[in-house]
Amino acid sequence: MAACVAGVPIVVVALIWYSFGVPVAAFRPFINDEVTYWHQAATFAAAGFGGGFYTSAEVTNPSGLTPFGAHGAGFPVVYGLFGRLFTWRLHSPVVANLTAVSLSVWLCVTLARVSRVRALLLGALLCTFWPLLIWAPTAMQESLHHAGAVAMAGCVAGVLLPEASRAARVIGWPLLGALAFVRPSWLVLMPVWAVASTWGRRPRAVVGALTGAAMLSIAVLVAYGRTTAPFVPPFFFLRAASGALDPATVWSNLRANLAMTADLSAYEPLEVLLRLQYWIWLAAAAVLIAVRLTRRGGGASASTPYVAAGLIAMAGAMGLMLALYTLTNATEHRVLSAFLLFAAVLAALAPGRLAPLLAGALIASQVVAMGDFRRAFKEERQSNFLWDRRGHRELEAALAAAGVAFRPGEERWCNTLLVSQFPPFLTAVPPGIGLSVVREPNELTLPVRSRYLLLDPRALADFVRPPRAEPLAQLPYGTVYRNLDARCP
Predict the structure, then answer these.
(1) How many domains is the chain partitioned into structurally?
(2) What is the pLDDT of residues 197-227, one digit of tens each?
(3) Can you say whether residue 53 is alpha, beta or left, with left for phi > 0 and alpha for psi between -120 and 50 degrees?
(4) What do you get for the CA distance between the two ends of the chain, in Å?
(5) Which of 360, 384, 408 corresponds to the end of one domain?
(6) What's the predicted TM-score (pTM) here?
(7) Cα 12 from Cα 377, distance rounded (Å)
(8) Measured between alpha carbons, how far is 259 from 355 in angstroms, rounded to an integer?
(9) Do 464 and 419 belong to one domain?
(10) CB neighbours (10 Å) of residue 98?
């Protein structure tokens, strides 16, 4: 069991050392979203909800309760709490990711009462699942969702046991609600969990659970929409959920996504692999269930609920993505890989032989693609672990000399830096100072409200009316200003 729980951290640490010859502590966020996530977590760790705004073009969320950005408050709060407990450094997201995965595996094997043989199968599945391994050493959300997939699979397996786990029933509801608040795609699992958690009980209990799931889903969507700073332009799925799009627009988006799904030329080999794994799993699971239900004598086997739960969750996630998202290379596998992992873990835990064979086939396909994975890991994570620290130190020194610092108790805009570029060195901005990104300054509502500005000449020239600003520091990618139009002391 210990090897199963510790397997992914051991593999990831070994991969980092083998690929780059450095420890985990060499990590820094590099992708734009990584930098944003890292800094939001750092701000929550340092200032709670009292830090500056993280917005696009200074457009804040409707409620004003949280200062966080276009991907909501869930992830910054979860990882910011980790930072409050254990301090927050550049490499802290990787430590948090590996901790979350290990805890989820422990929870899974405990709730599902996993045998030693199934624990070995589960360990092999996790230690070869390339999306988990490639995103664990990052500051992105994906590892949290992979951990959530494993934990929720353990909850579902726990309630499907002949003697259902009461702990699984208690843990599953708040866990799924929290995951859905971090990323609403988890809402597709609500009806699955409602039925699973009442498996074998009276129809009245099932209806009650489904009603509760619907109410919780509505509450999560409302809370997410009210506490999420609008992206400019807004995300397609949020516009669709709010009723701002007509059916013709959604249908057009669906057709475009289906056409893109059939085109593999724009995708990397591992992305093509995940797409094939996803569709083949859906087909194989559907056939397996159909065979079980139509065999002589009728009735489902003990493994059917496990396979069906994974199939429904995967199909729901795929359907929502095709209808309400705009498919891109990264978006597809980042969102859908968690649902494939959920289904695969359930299959590995299911009684009988056929369902675990599905998990075994997935493991085999991962092993065959290990060469592509090693190359992709080295290419995509190199900038996270091998980097020049001078840019970080330069910005840190410039901001300190300019007096840019978090001031507790002041209005949020007075602790916000408006930026026109997003270099990875923004991790040097003091925690508590929010980062508002502006791509098209001529679309900003004037006057600019952020106290500090980091603007390049092109962005400064794009303002309809240039802000009254005092230069504080010059950097290769722009100038730091104090905004004299901001209503700050």
Answers:
(1) 2
(2) 999 889 999 999 999 999 999 999 899 988 9
(3) beta
(4) 58
(5) 384
(6) 0.94
(7) 10
(8) 31
(9) yes
(10) 22
